[in-house]
Amino acid sequence: MQKITVAKGDGIGPEIMDATLEIILAAGAKIEIEEIEVGEKVYLAGNTAGIAKESWDVIRRNKIFLKAPITTPQGGGYKSLNVTTRKFLGLYSNVRPCSSLHPYISTKHPKMDIVIIRENEEDLYAGIEHQQTDEVVQCLKLISRPGCEKIVRYAFEYAKQYGRKKVTCFTKDNIMKQTDGLFHKVFDEIGLEYPEIEKEHWIIDIGAAKMADTPEIFDVIVMPNLYGDILSDVAAQITGSVGLAGSANIGEECSMFEAIHGSAPRIAGQNKANPSGLLQGAIMMLNHIGQTDIAEKVQNAWLKTIEDGIHTYDVFKEGISKEKLGTKEFAKAVIKNLGAKPTTLKAASYAKGTALNLPKYVRKAPQNKELVGVDVFVHWAGTDANILAASIKQIELQNLQLKMITNRGIKVWPDGFKETFCTDHWRCRFQSTENNSINKENIITILSKAIEKNIDTIKTENLYTFEGKLSFSLGQGQ
Length: 478
Ligand code: NAD
What we know:
binds nicotinamide-adenine-dinucleotide; six-stranded antiparallel β-sheet; Isopropylmalate Dehydrogenase; elongated; 478 residues; ten-stranded mixed β-sheet; Alpha-Beta Plaits; single chain; 20 strands
């Protein structure tokens, strides 16, 4: 018996949650339910997070959280509960299956059956942004090895449990060699542990174009946060059935399962809402906790119901659908089909009986790291890099000399092009000769000399080698 936390949410939430629970319990789910209140009422009672402290305790204790959609009141500084839950509970993996239900739900992609697995915690979403000069702002893109290992392993384990054949990785590592490069490298490393699964990597731009055009060539796709945020919506939309999709947010300790749609307040309380999205979330939950036989039984009964043309109003189509049912009646129809399998749609078949194998990240031994230079960023309103170089050369040291100046990453000194457009944000790279180690006092000396010369330094970035390998990008054109 697995204890789970349930929140019935707002709008259509209570109706679709009741229907979902009725179906999975009828199928034999071995769960014990502990209910908490989250959402609108909690927000309006003055709690800007939409969740009380005691409810956090319940979620953390039970670890598995099935959540109906909630209404975030407009204005008033209310924080999205989804974002808060993801961040506080370290839910690093967002999983969104996107499968066509052709010919029952119309789509341009009848054979599409993909799962987007999106890294959920890092990348450009760390929210570390600064204005540095009059003209330039920055956002730090942070990618960590534990972040990559956890998400990539999750993708392969997911593929194994769901009997999927291929995992594809999307990155832009031809440009971002360090950050996306690490994601790709970890994908290659961990992929070796799964010889039975086909692996491939696509550069995100062409990969995304292919996914939108011929999604049937993909199976499971794993990617960093920003790309995943965008492409999971594209993928859900092109199945033609956003309202039928569920999603899982998985962490090392806790997980949250839900529908991808919102609380649809306009149809609340009318026994009209389609419970399928939340039911899909619940099926992922059952798989996650190892009750794969029940998950399979529910999924097949649901597919059979859709295939029989038994539909709620939102997906009802004259000529294809046979019966238009309300939320409760739809749930009853699915329950009646428990034990049956679809005949046209592909029946679900999940690996039997085990939860996913997701070992905790173990930190590796530290690498041999040497400081070999520094990038000093300078705010300067001039346009001729040769003038800036002459001034910067006055602050270089014998063992730490100015090697290059870039503007927005493009080398403008030495040998820059006069055509290159320059902003007021310049990176001056000081590197030791032959990449010998330098020390941090050298950097402090350069910065103090800059103060004396009235050079406006805005930040520094240390240049390191790890295990003797240069571990920073070169300037474009360097
Ligand atoms: P929505 O997803 O609630 O509704 C969009 C459209 O889809 C509406 O026409 C609605 O009637 C229809 N729809 C959605 N789910 C349906 C279902 N199960 N059956 C039949 N029709 C369905 O999006 P919205 O209107 O932009 O947002 C409403 C509220 O939901 C907002 O307060 C928003 O903040 C919240 N929201 C919550 C979540 C969540 O909790 N995960 C996600 C998205 C939006």
